[in-house]
Write a structure and sequence with these properties.
The chain is of the alpha+beta class and 354 residues long. The protein is built from four helices and 21 strands.
Length: 354
């Protein structure tokens, strides 16, 4: 009996300690996270900077080159990215069929010319009616015109660049069949470039053609470039609430490439006055404090009276040099967490360190 009691005693002790360990684990509280905060009561209407828009560079002119005749492409030496000079041969189509047609038409024209010369000599001697001479002359003119038209098909088997620029999208290769009017190469004129900017509908009327704009491009070291608005869109983009504003930039060195991303600031008195009016009622908060969840919803963390992190969904507005505008979701009386939010979850205990 004593060995059995000893075993039961040991087992009971083990269960006791296990139970205590489980109780302690269940009662463990989450770690308190140190955070920095700002008082939003001092952030309303605090932006005096201009609105920053995102833009994309586009070539000033984009020309789709195509053949005017059909046939097999037997030469297409130009590659995407190559610089092409005005008048440079870009591609050729096999001219054999058109050359044969031209030779046949040319032979008909020569025969019509010889026939006309014989009839003309007889007519000048008064041995034939004038109508016969006129018919021969008409046949000669028709044959010559047909030969010239056929020769143009031979000319059109060679595709030349209408102006200098960079080869963009190459749509086919040698060996493929070209069809009349079907683009085979896109030629980009980048002596000047356009910046395409999507502007919301509530801001589009601030800008007019000729207004100044400052453009910075990450790929070019953020050196400020001065441009002017060339076009203000009147049709919404893809049925959205955004309109396109086109800013023209000089590009003499052709260092600016289509597709580069940039930031645009418009410098207009109308934009300044309207912006000041709008921002007077907006909250401007640090952009890094705004996070986006898996569903694409923007949210921030604030500190509630129980010293816990409160997750709050927000609707964001324009991006300024000193922060991001908040349209809704905050009252302006909260303590916004600006540091340490990466470790937070809703209702996490927090300690304010600043």
């Amino acid at each position: 009996m004593k060995p059995i009691l000893s075993i039961l005693t040991v087992a009971g002790a083990a269960l006791f300690f296990t139970g205590c360990s489980g109780h302690n684990e269940a009662g463990k509280t989450p770690d308190t996270i140190n955070v920095n905060v700002i008082e939003l009561s001092g952030q309303k209407g605090s932006s005096t900077d201009q609105i920053i828009y995102s833009g994309t560079l586009q070539a000033d002119k984009m020309i789709d080159l195509s053949f005017q005749v059909s046939g097999t492409i037997n030469s297409f030496p130009v590659k995407a990215g190559d610089y092409v000079k005005k008048g440079q041969l870009v591609a050729t189509v096999d001219e054999t069929t058109y050359r044969n047609q031209y030779n046949a038409q040319l032979a008909q024209a020569k025969l019509a010319e010889e026939n006309y010369n014989r009839i003309l000599a007889v007519f000048q001697k008064g041995s034939i009616a004038e109508i016969k001479m006129l018919e021969a002359k008409s046949n000669l003119d028709q044959a010559a015109s047909a030969a010239r038209a056929t020769y143009q098909n031979i000319v059109h088997t060679r595709l030349y660049a209408p102006q200098s620029g960079y080869a963009g999208d190459k749509k086919t290769e040698a060996g493929a069949t070209a069809n009349p009017g079907e683009p085979v190469l896109q030629l980009l004129d980048t002596r000047s470039v356009n910046v395409l900017v999507a502007v919301p509908e509530n801001e589009i009327n601030r800008y007019q053609t000729g207004d100044h704009a400052t453009v910075t491009i990450d790929a070019m070291g953020n050196t400020p470039l001065e441009g002017r608005i060339a076009e203000v869109g009147v049709l919404a983009l893809n049925n959205s609430a955004n309109y396109t504003v086109k800013v023209k930039l000089a590009n003499p060195a052709q260092a600016l490439k289509p597709g580069m991303l940039c930031k645009v600031v418009f410098s207009t008195q109308a934009a300044q006055s309207l912006k000041a009016k709008d921002t007077a009622q907006q909250l401007i908060i640090p952009a890094q404090a705004v996070q986006v969840d898996e569903q694409g919803h923007s949210y921030v963390y604030t500190v509630n009276p129980q010293h816990k992190a409160q997750r709050q969904l927000v609707q964001t507005g324009a991006l300024y040099n000193n922060g991001l505008a908040i349209i809704s979701g905050l009252t302006g009386n909260e303590q916004l967490i600006t540091s340490g939010y990466q470790k937070l979850a809703d209702q996490s205990p927090v300690k304010i360190t600043q």
